[in-house]
Amino acid sequence: MRIALVGAGAFGEKHLAGLKNVPDAEVVTVVSASEAESRKLADQFGVADVSDDYEATLQRDDIDAVILTTPTPMHAAQAIQAMDAGKHVEVEIPAADSWADAQAVLAKQQETGLVCMVGHTRRFNPSHQYVKQQIDAGKFTIQAMDIETFFFRRTNTNAKGEPRSWTDHLLWHHSAHSIDIFQYMTGAKVVKANILQGPKHPDLGIAMDQSIQMKTDKGQILTLALSFNNDGPLGTFFRYIGDTGTYIARYDDLVNGREEPIDVSNVDISMNGIELQDREFVAAIREGREPNSSIAQVMDCYRVIGELAESLEQQDGWS
């Protein structure tokens, strides 16, 4: 599978590190806003070809698929461009930063029949896979989930601490991981949702703290706290509260409610969630099937986020 990696930032590096372990994957080129950016990342992974022209890259016959790790505001348009050019596409989370754009990506996938997968990595992390296996085996049923997404980002920087040309967003980006995994794990639909947020940062123009509550049609509840103000342990921490126990997932690590470690080393072929995500993308293309985390499967996540975004607009109107 011949792939163009588009976006030379922190997550572009994560995907290249994962793809080198996928036997059927060949990264043909690295594309970014400048050839210098592309070359810097490509050289780390032995990719000879680089480009600063996404449109020209899409016209190449030696590329089957693209992986987009570009700024969030570009995701929807670039995913649609890829499918218009006949390329399969894996777009990093979020698929879009509006409900209308998410719907447009789905419509293009349905029109073309190409694989369009979204980077909801939590579905692939071995820690979360283990919990899903317990659910599927009938050994565990979720009653509630508590999730904390905490970062310290009072400047416009990425996961590596490098300057960003765009502004990250707690709701459209970071909550998407949690809202999707909540519905995926419960097998239920969110029917009630509420959001509150703190003051907007004077320079970044975004809310730095948010609180989200949800309920499914099966009665499970989600309590989600998000902050860019947290000066402490960073990341997202998932607490699964069920009828037969409690699990706490921290990326690829899993413990029970008493903080006793659970071995997840044999859950899948790798412990790297990004690699497993990319393996699924390549396999779905080769096998001509819908991938886990397809745009169709994650649409209800973006429906809920769109409703929450609309609620915030109404709240701003009342203030």
SSE blueprint:
Layout (H helix, E strand, L loop, with lengths): L1 E5 L3 H10 L6 E6 L3 H10 L4 E3 L2 H5 L6 E4 L6 H10 L3 E5 L6 H14 L3 E4 L6 H11 L5 E9 L19 H17 L3 E8 L11 E8 L4 E7 L7 E8 L3 E5 L2 E4 L16 H15 L7 H24 L1
Parallel strand pairs: 1-2, 1-4, 2-3, 4-5, 5-6, 7-10
Antiparallel strand pairs: 7-11, 8-9, 9-10, 11-12, 12-13
Secondary-structure element order, as H and E? EHEHEHEHEHEHEHEEEEEEHH
Stretches where pLDDT is under 50 for at least 5 consecutive residues are none
Biggest sheet statistics: 7 strands, mixed
Percent in strands: 15-25%
3D shape: globular
Question: In total, how many beta strands?
Answer: 13
Strand order in the sheet with the most strands: 8-9-10-7-11-12-13
> Rounded to an integer, what's the Rg over CA atoms?
19 Å
The average pLDDT value, as a whole number, equals: 94
For the termini, the CA-CA separation is: 52 Å
Helical amount = 25-40%
Number of helices: 9
Assembly level: single chain
**Structural class designation:** alpha/beta
List keywords for this structure.
about 325 residues, about 25% strand, six-stranded parallel beta sheet, seven-stranded mixed beta sheet, alpha/beta
